[in-house]
Task: structure prediction
Amino acid sequence: MPRFKTEPFAHQLAEVDEHWSTPYRCLWWEQGTGKTKAIIDTAAALYRDGKIDAVFIIAPGGVHDNWIRDEIPAHMPDEIPIMTHAYQTKTQGTKRFQTYAPTLLEFEGLAVLAMTFDSIMTQKKKGVKKIKYKGAEYAKAFLTQRKCLFVVDEGSYIKTPGAQVTKRLLAAAKYADYRRLLNGT
Result:
């Protein structure tokens, strides 16, 4: 069984070898130096060791899609059973998503959920039961029902301690045993 799907550069290999099981870690690498691949390889190692069964990614709009559409298929080893979803606020109320949402929560493999900073701020209005899985509630369900690696991509988005999104992410992160903050700008 191959350890990597794509061969890492020396600095990526060093990161994974030295820190794959470190509970908390920040990667302050320049843009284009492969932070995403290092995290995917870390997730694969944690999954193989039974430490996680999910990856929860918070990223800017478009970047969260890129994780699901391009990066994970390119770098996640093929033998790892995986189910992914790029959460979209505009489709959260659709019947299709409301049916799909529990499937990802219950998947028996590595579940990967990517959300935007804006998505995690959406909440149900009190008394409204039509939409079960708004961003904040779905994130909490995912983090509390799974053993997660929590990834914040472009960590400079949460640089203001008093900002609501910063507070929300810090509160959510406590549910994950493994956390990574990435920044390259």
Observations:
- Helices lie at 10-19, 35-48, 63-75, 95-106, 135-145, 164-173.
